[in-house]
Amino acid sequence: MALAEQLNFETNTQKALDLIELSLPNGGMLDAKMGLPSGYAGPVLRGAKSFSFKTATVDLVVQELAGEQYALRFGIGKFLKDAITKGEIYKEGLYSYFMLKGSARKKFDTLGRMHLRQDQYSAFYTKEDDCTADFEKNTEFRLFDVFYSPMLLAELSPYFPEVKKMLAGEDSSLTYRPCRMLPSMREITQQILNCPYEDDTRQFYFDLKVRELLFQILRNAFRERKSAIRFTSWEKARILETRNILERHISQKTPSIKSLARQVALNEFKLKAGFRQYFQSGIFEWLMERKLQYAKELLQSTNKPVKEICAMVGYPRTTNFITAFRKRFGVTPGSFRRE
Description:
CATH architecture of the largest domain: Sandwich
Structural class: alpha+beta
Order of helices and strands: EEEEEEEEEEEEEHHEHHHHHHHHH
CATH topology of the largest domain: Jelly Rolls
Number of strands: 14
Number of helices: 11
Radius of gyration: 21 Å
Number of domains: 2
Largest sheet: 8 strands, antiparallel
Strand order of the largest sheet: 3-4-5-6-13-8-11-14
Helix content: 25-40%
Shape: globular
CATH superfamily of the largest domain: Jelly Rolls
Strand content: 25-35%
């Protein structure tokens, strides 16, 4: 693809995050508008610098925020024509990408290719590198990036000895290979993107949450994989199919483990062990989390009565739904909607 429209922007955040250049197929210069666009209804990264780009080719909003030892970037948008973004990583640290919606294909000069799908994340430690990324045409994506400095990583080295080796350049057990997001990771990213605080309290909140997210990344990389069970390609495919079946049951009665095992032709032990290994959650817990997150989205984006939403996420009784929602989010569905 020949270079055409180019998108370049510089912020303080780029002292940490990779520099980005967007190449599009129909010539001309694409200028960024400062601030969030009129009518924007997506998540807001409070305190961030915002940029928007809207043409016949792209509809994109980027929000960036720099902390003392970390940097955050949230991108939401859609490419209406083929496009490739070019990035330049020039600062040493841990880079993590969380695909909240859609998918992206990335290529790093030193690390190779990566296909990041929805509900997956990638984390790796690097010094300098060049990369490109392209997104599926006409499909909305939401990508949340976090950069961690070596100094911040060192804070967790007493709990993860592997970090010391990584910082010394002796070992890098972290891999850029995409992994499934833990439910806790998704929750933390949503808390960051929906921060309710202002000023100094907000900064303290972000400082805390980015460290929580880093802890989850390191724990998943260095602790959980040591007890991994090996599965054949066929068994892995059947375990992944289990998730697809559960997705179709978000608004239905929860199937039994016995029924699921029969549908995917695995014994119950392998199904449960495999599901926990690949999705870092029990089957029931994973489905309940998805039901409650879906209910939360409905409460935010629709005016449907709580009773109707309760039925839509497969809860037979409204009282059970309210109890589960309050236990998970700390407020009742009605109170959450009024906030």
